[in-house]
Amino acid sequence: MKGHRNAKDQLLRASQAIPLNIAEGKGSA
């Protein structure tokens, strides 16, 4: 269960980081 919870946390962080990366890419473009 701990591993599953960790994977879910990573997914949450990834889903939050993706829009930030897109915004940075548009800002520098």
How large is the share of residues in beta strands?
Answer: under 5%
Helix/strand order: H
Mean pLDDT: 83
Q: Work out the radius of gyration.
A: 13 Å
First and last CA, distance: 42 Å
User: Pairing-aware structural class of the strands and helices?
Assistant: mainly alpha
Helix segment count?
Answer: 1
Low-pLDDT windows of residues = none
Q: What is the share of helical residues?
A: over 70%
The count of β-strands is 0
Label the overall shape: rod-shaped
Specify the biggest β-sheet: none
Q: Which labels suit this protein?
A:
93% helix; single chain; 29 residues; rod-shaped
Give a nutshell description of this structure:
With 29 residues, this protein is an all-alpha fold.
What does the model show?
The chain is mainly α and about 30 residues long. The protein contains 1 helix and no strands. It is rod-shaped, with a radius of gyration of 13 Å. The termini are far apart. The model has no long low-confidence stretch (mean pLDDT about 85).
